[in-house]
Amino acid sequence: MTSTASPHRAGPAAPAPARPPAARKQARPRNRSLRGTGEGRMAALLLSPTLLVLALVIVYPLISAVHQSLYRTESGLDANGFVAEGESFVGLANYVDLFVGDSGERFLNAFSNTTFFTVTTVLLETVLGLALALAMNRAFRGRAFLRASILVPWAVPTAVSGLLWRWIFQSDGIANTLIGSEILWTAEGVASKVAVIVAEVWKTAPFIGLLVLAGMQVIPEEVYEAARIDGAGWWRQLAYITLPLVKPTLLVAVLFRMLDALRMFDLPFVLIGPGKESVETLSMLAWDESNQLRYGSASAFAVVLFLYVAAVAIVFVKVLGADVTGAKHLRLARKANRIQKAEATR
């Protein structure tokens, strides 16, 4: 006798159709793209106030300076015989005048002074700043006092620092008293260059020292312990551990200092004074031209200085590999993260 199954009795549930692998692979990139788009919009929204401020204080003055450099203020007689002044379009004439005549000689002198001060001061500051960082990185009694005292020159305003060193470099000042001579430090000549270099190095060497010290603090102590076990002395540790590991920080510090030194104005202006040929820089020259109401040539000087600073920054970033924005470090971190995920899925 055969029995029939009740129609109300439920049989085993049929398995849900499996989602094809291709569909799963397509869904993930779409979710990632949507998430990336949302994060990009949020980042743009958060950065918009900063970009607006930068456009107002950097982009607009730069465009205005380029526009002003194409004009020149000229005076003459109008149709009624009265003196009339106005601006006329001269194209690149203001830039051509930078290399010819008396204006050309003054520009080349200011350009050479700017380059000389930049190379000399940054080189001395790098050596002295590295020495200060090595001294502050060692463990000894009174290290906190040393670090605080090194900050003092950098914290002093540049104008105050210029007045301080002007008092030191007077004819009857401390400098001449110590060396037992009567040198006119604040007059024309090589002595004025030396005075500017000494004052600049004293003020800004702590900046490089503090940045390099921050880079040294990140180096693990285990690296030095392993080097000491292998018989490496202090010089070998400095050459093969400290300097290579603080190189990114040191390059960024040197780049910032070079960009600041190329725009040097206030220290030689206060210490030596305006109109001194031996210490006149491009910034001082642009200020003098604008003070004489020659805004076209002053804007041309400013544009050339901007291009000079931009060229130095590009060389440091592209050739020497100064990671200013941290993009290189971010790429390395992402690459390491991808490698870890790939190893975890094996």
Task: Write a compact overview of the structure shown.
The chain is mostly helical and 346 residues long. The chain has a single domain, classed as Orthogonal Bundle (MetI-like fold). The chain has 13 helices and 2 strands; from the N terminus they run αββαααααααααααα.
How would you describe this structure to a colleague?
By secondary structure, this protein is mostly helical. It has a single domain (86-340), classed as MetI-like fold (Orthogonal Bundle), CATH 1.10.3720. 71% of the residues lie in helices and 4% in strands. The protein is built from 13 helices and two strands; from the N terminus they run αββαααααααααααα. It has helices at residues 21-68, 93-96, 101-137, 143-155, 158-168, 174-179, 190-218, 221-229, 234-262, 266-271, 282-291, 295-319, 327-344, and strands at residues 71-77, 83-89. A two-stranded antiparallel ribbon has the order 1-2. Helix 4 (143-155) packs across helix 7. The two termini are 58 Å apart. Residues 1-11 and 22-27 have low confidence and may be disordered.
Key attributes of the depicted protein:
346 residues, mainly alpha, MetI-like fold, two-stranded antiparallel ribbon, 13 helices
Give a short account of the largest sheet.
2 strands, antiparallel
Taken in chain order, the helices and strands follow as HEEHHHHHHHHHHHH
Find the structural class using helix and strand composition: mainly alpha
Enumerate the strands of the largest sheet in spatial order, edge to edge or round the barrel.
Answer: 1-2
Strand runs, count: 2
The number of helical segments is 13
Question: Uncertain segments of ≥5 residues (pLDDT<50)?
Answer: 1-11, 22-27
Overall shape: it is: flat
Instruction: Tell me the span between the first and last alpha carbons.
Output: 58 Å
* Helicity, as a percent range: over 70%
